[in-house]
Specification:
The complex is a heterodimer of chains A (156) and B (751). By secondary structure, chain A is an alpha+beta fold. Helices cover 37% and strands 13% of the residues of chain A. Chain B has 751 residues and is an alpha+beta fold. Chain B is built from 19 helices and 31 strands. The chains are: A alpha+beta (156), B alpha+beta (751).
Chain lengths: 156, 751
Amino acid sequence: MITLTVNGKAHQFNDDGEMPLLWALRDVLKYSGTKYGCGKGLCGACTVHVDGQPIRSCITPVSAIAEQKITTIEGLSEQGDHPVQQAWQSLNVPQCGYCQSGQIMSAVALLDRNAKPNDQDIDLAMSGNICRCGTYQRIKKAIHLAADLATEVKGS
Amino acid sequence: MKQIENVSRRGFLKKLGISSTALVLGVQLPSMLTIPKALAGSLATDKFAPNVYVQIGTDNIVSIVVHRSEMGQGIRTSIPMIVADELGADWEKIDIIQGLGDKKYGSQNTDGSRSVRRFYQPLREAGASARMMLQQAAAKQWQVDISETKADNNFIIHEKSGRQLSFGSLVPAASKMVLPETSALILKAKQDFKFIGKSDVALVDGEKIATGATTFGFDVELDNMQYAVIARPPVLAAKVKSFNADAAKAINGVVDVVQLADLEEPAVFKPLGGVAVIATNTWAAIKGREALDVQWHESGHQVYNSDSYKEALAKSCDNPAKVLRSKGDVAKALSDAKQVLKASYYVPELIHVPMEPPAATAHYHDGIFDIWACTQTPQSAQGTVAQITGVAAENININVTLLGGGFGRKSKPDFVVEAAILSKQLNVPIKLVWTREDEIQNGYYHAVSYQKLAAGIDENGQVSAWQHHAAEPPIGATFSKGADLISSEADLGLIDMPYDIANISCAVGKAPAHTRIGWMRSVTNINHAFAVCSFADELANAKQQDSKAHLLALIGKDRKIDFSTENAKYGNYGETLEKFPVETARMKAVIEKASDMAKWGRKLPKGHGLGIAMHRSFVSYVACVVEVSENSDGKIKVHDVWMAVDCGLAVNPERIRSQMEGAAIFGLSLTFFSELTAKDGVIQQSNFDGYEIARYSDAPTTHVEIIASDAAPGGVGEPGVPPIAPAICNAIFNATGKRYRELPLKQYGIV
């Protein structure tokens, strides 16, 4: 028995501890916002936060993250109004939208440790997230916008 | 000055229908319409439904059916824009209903860049007929002439008297009105458009995407559902010899193992066969599949090896089987030429890699199929499931989820059939998913191609001959076993080469298919535009002329091209030449626009180069200019892409720009990184490590301009892709003097 704390809620997990967190979240605990893209940690679609750090849930076994706090896209904000989520909407960032949960989780983690990233910082931090639709340019813009927003929040 | 202000002042959250007391700063959205509030749907039982696309409830909610699949092109926003505009609807009172697969909507096959192209007029008519019936109802009540009324913001308004009635209040009366004849419909004038052509419409699914609340094919959940993956043959049409069901069943969570019928070619949209593992979760199913140890019989397609296949394609170009366009006497013109230029181009086999691989959930019960799938083609999914399972089409409900990318892969419903077969056989709801490895190794592939071009330059410096021979396995082989000659693929950039040259010959050589060949975003335009637009640049450089000036001269005087006068049967994307002519003036206009954007002719920094390419596809015109640089290590970086697009009337300019931005990345991926190779019939790549696509640091800044036009709307999703690869290679030549004719460029160590 493993206790998984997802978005502040504790879940009892009775399945195989070797199961990647991705499938535990999606199939067992029914958090479908976290996406499968490659299963090998190559594309970033499955990015979630574990104790605030971005990880690839598709290659992280459940047994490795017991006792730590997991945050998924559903838990990023109560009202869907995290500055990154607002910036994404205001710039119409997504095309198909499938990779965007992972993109947003990576972007939030970047802004948490670097409040004002430049383009190179963004390239580096986001390099593990693929978007086949090609929204990279808008995501960069949105990260800058979210950084400005977050600064405004702190300053107000 | 950043456009930011305190949202609590502006009521941003209120506008989004969110209540919060927390101080949250929002981005100012002065230019964005908010997301429709009514997305929760209309609860009215009394509805006015004048046609299959529009329903209006007594609660004043306008439900608009989107019958096409959303895969990132923005169609769930664009269709409502068209209908709501003609109807005079209040954007915040619309509800969007995703249409089930049903022939009553007309074609739902969301490919070929034709949703707006084919449905702009019918959707406007649907909105207009509903509006006119509402107007009739109001005019009757007020005892005024219908011409004195107008629709705006969900009201019918009588301006003279200032009276107005909401759409909802008119539902009972409007339902009794006579449906106007199409010829009697009065459509809005362009200057009155409120949504069409405007860039301030927010994506209808934007908020749900940003909060992870959307449902893609992978996300469907049913009670008592089981999860399935399938071990498919590594070589096309290889049959199952043996497998170890017990080993799979020993995995915790595995509940069943099912052998599927072996594939009999042609593949069409049939399942590939193999062995399915059913489990209580996806992970267990994948582990079970690994334990299966399937052994396969040999397949005739084991002869497929990329190296030798490439050589065979090159030879096939030397001995073409069919001439598809012939003007003048190319052989004579080449022999008379002062200078003959020859070049060969190669584009490898490619695959779609949408971020969401195929997935479908099927529930067979009471003789009925309820199916949810990320399909581009619900009607063909319905038809193929009916054909293979024997269940009547009318008892098969195909629900279209959001698609996590499509790019043509999800136009083929084989995965939907797999889910249906398993659910019917096992009598439980089944979610069938493809892993990334499945998607790459068992796909419908973009055809590998070899092309040989030759051109003659006469004593006056004119290009007097153009000869283009291509060999590539045909999509036809997927539908007719043994087909080895392309047909309609030649209409995609081969026989519609637009240059004004006196002697032209376009021919194709045989190429047997050893994988399922299918459509991928812009299809063989990728191969042909790469060759044609690169070769045009090679001619300019051979003649020591400016690439842009030479390209304009090659295209020649303003004219509408009719390829039938040159012994070619040109399909024009299923459209008439009257409605969608091949216009050289529009080609030149996009070239001029893109060049202006890029400041063509300016002095460039050391190591930098500009390249240009123009291609017409899906009846739209796109020119692009690319700026690259080579660093001291010989590595190439793409800095900027300037794209000018003429797609006729621009219905949703904001999504047109995003499609061009995406096309630039799609084109850049195949230019530099992507390649599939086969060994003994088996695709050697299996994930994003072997099959690479562009990442952040590779992404240029893409600038897009849309040519203002009143011409009928053309395609948008695909036309941006073809000119990218040649423009990049032309720019690299301009920067370095090195000409690359084989993709992807990573093989040359320049990235």
